[in-house]
C-alpha cells in the first residue's frame, strides 16, 4: 500500500482515542488554533513579522478568499481504497505534492529555527526549501537533514560573486534545485513592522548564510566577528538587486547545473518569458501577500499561468495553503505541487520541531482524506473538472 494512504487513518484514530478525555496539552488540529497559540507565545514584533502582509493586507486576505470561491465536486464509486499522492519533479519522486516553503529568520520564532523545520520536513519526506535569509547556514541545515530532499532558495545578491558562491555552496551541500525569488528585491511596505519598529535583519537575525560566505566576507573591511554592525549594513546594501532583467538569467545558468525555478511569477506574460529563457519551473506566488498589496491572489493567477505553460515545465504554487482541500484545489487548477508557509511557522512557534511535524502530518492526512472522499485516487487524475467556481 502506498505510504501516503495511511495518513488519514492515523490522524482519525488519534483524534478519536483522545475524544473522551481530551488532553489540554494536546497539539492543535485547526489552523486557526495554531495561529492563536503562536500569538500567545510570540512577542508583537516576531508574531506580526510572520502573520502580517503588505499594506492593507488586501492580497493576503484574497489569497484565502479565492480558495473558498472554488468548490470541489466529489465523485462516487471510483475505488479509492489505495491512493497515490506521490509526484515526480526533475527526475525525483517525492512522497506527496507538498513542500516546506522557503522562510527566512526562523530564529525569531523558535531558538532551533530552520534546523527544527528542516528535521521535521525530512522526517515526513517533505522537501525543505532553505531560504537564503536563514539564520543557520545552508550547510548546517543540510547536515541535520541527512539524505532527505532539499532545495535552495536564492535571493539574488547585488554582488555576482556572492550569488555564484551561494549556488556553488548549495550544490556542494546536496540541494537538488534552485528556487530564485524574484518578488523581493526589497522589503515591501509592511505596516505592522513599521508600527512595531521591527526588522529582524537589523539585529543580525537571518544573515547566517551571508556571514559564513567566503565571497561576502571578502567584501568586508573587517570580519563580522570584529564589526557585526558593518557586516549587517553591507548586507542591507547588497541583499537585493532591483536592477535585474530577464537577460541576467543566463548568469545563473552559467553557475549551476541544477534545475532553476522562478518564484513570484503572477503574470502569464512572465510565465511565457520564463519558458523562453529556459527556466525549469515556476512557482506562482505573491509571497503570502507580503510584497505587492493589491496584487492578484495566487490561486487566481494559477490557471492563467497554466494555460500559457501547457505542461511544458512544472508549475508550483503557494500563498494561502491552509488545509488539505486547498492542496487538492491548487493541484486541480494545474499546480504540480504546493509550498506551505505560515502554517509551518505557527507549528514551529508552538512546539518547535514537533509542531512543524504535526502541521505537515495533519495537512498530508487531510489532503489524502479529501482526495479519497472526492473520489480521486491519484494526483495525476486531478483536473479542473473536479472543481466549480462560485462567485
Ligand atoms: C516569516 C516569513 C518569511 C519568509 N521568508 C521568505 C524567504 O526568505 N524567501 C522566500 O522566497 N520567501 C519567503 N517567504 C514567503 C514564503 O516562501 C511563501 O511564499 C509564503 O509564506 C506563502 O504564503 P502563506 O504563508 O500565506 O501560505 C516568507 C514568508 C514568511 C511568512
Ligand atoms: C530585506 C528583505 C528580506 C526578506 C527576507 C525574508 C522574506 O522574504 C520575508 O517575506 O520576510
TrEMBL record:
Q: Which CDD domains match?
A: LMO_FMN (cd03332)
What PROSITE patterns does this protein's entry cite? FMN_HYDROXY_ACID_DH_1 (PS00557), FMN_HYDROXY_ACID_DH_2 (PS51349)
Q: Which InterPro entries match?
A: Aldolase_TIM, Alpha-hydoxy_acid_DH_FMN, FMN-dep_DH, FMN_HAD, FMN_hydac_DH_AS, LMO_FMN
Q: In which residues is glyoxylate bound?
A: 49, 155, 190, 263, 287, 290
Residues forming the catalytic site = 287
Ranges of residues in domain FMN hydroxy acid dehydrogenase: 23-391
Keyword check for Repeat, yes or no: no
Q: Where does FMN bind?
A: 102-104, 131, 153, 181, 285, 318-322, 341-342
Q: What is its EC number?
A: 1.1.3.15
Query: Which cofactors are required for activity?
Result: FMN
- List the keywords (alphabetical): Flavoprotein, FMN, Oxidoreductase
What's the short name of a Pfam family annotated to this entry?
FMN_dh
Q: Which reaction does it catalyse?
A: (S)-lactate + O2 = pyruvate + H2O2; a (2S)-2-hydroxycarboxylate + O2 = a 2-oxocarboxylate + H2O2; 2-hydroxyoctanoate + O2 = 2-oxooctanoate + H2O2; mandelate + O2 = phenylglyoxylate + H2O2
SUPFAM superfamilies given in the database record: FMN-linked oxidoreductases
Q: What Gene Ontology terms describe what this protein does at the molecular function level? A: (S)-2-hydroxy-acid oxidase activity; FMN binding
Keyword Flavoprotein: yes or no? yes
UniProt record similarity statement:
Belongs to the FMN-dependent alpha-hydroxy acid dehydrogenase family.
Q: What is this protein called?
A: L-lactate oxidase
Q: Which organism is it from?
A: Halobacillus mangrovi
